[in-house]
TrEMBL record:
Pfam families listed in its UniProt record: DUF485
Keywords, comma-separated and alphabetical: Membrane, Transmembrane, Transmembrane helix
Protein origin, superkingdom: Bacteria
TM ranges: 36-54, 66-92
Descriptive protein name: Clumping factor B
Coiled coil: none
Region listing for Disordered, in residue ranges: 1-21
PANTHER family xref list: INTEGRAL MEMBRANE PROTEIN-RELATED, MEMBRANE PROTEIN
């Protein structure tokens, strides 16, 4: 009999993952992610749907010239790209402040369990 025997079967990566998945930190991480992702996704989809509906049903409004050959439809179309970059920046900032610290703690806990 070995003196290093712990008395139970060794933990597999599945049991380590199950333990981490059931932890309060993981639930908090998932909750924080959902609090950002779901509202932001809904907001972007509404903004995009508004653009599509205006382009299809409000030709007069969308073709209103702002200056030169630039019209409201072109500006709204370009704002779709701008909003994508803004959302990405907001997510990175949110992840750095709210998600990454919790994920780092979960990772450290898993590594301690496996060591």
């Amino acid at each position: 009999m070995s003196t290093t025997d712990t008395g139970g079967p060794p933990e597999t990566s599945e049991t380590v993952w199950e333990h981490a998945h059931e932890s309060t930190e993981f639930r908090e991480l998932r909750s924080r992610l959902r609090r950002f992702v779901f509202p932001m996704t809904a907001l972007f989809l509404v903004w995009y749907l508004l653009y599509v509906l205006l382009a299809d049903y409000a030709h007069g409004f969308m073709s209103t010239k702002v200056f030169g050959n630039i019209n409201i439809g072109l500006i709204f179309g370009l704002l779709q790209f701008v909003s994508t970059f803004v959302i990405t920046g907001l997510y990175v900032r949110y992840a750095n402040r709210k998600l990454d610290p919790v994920a780092e703690k979960i990772r450290e806990d898993i590594e301690k369990e496996q060591a």
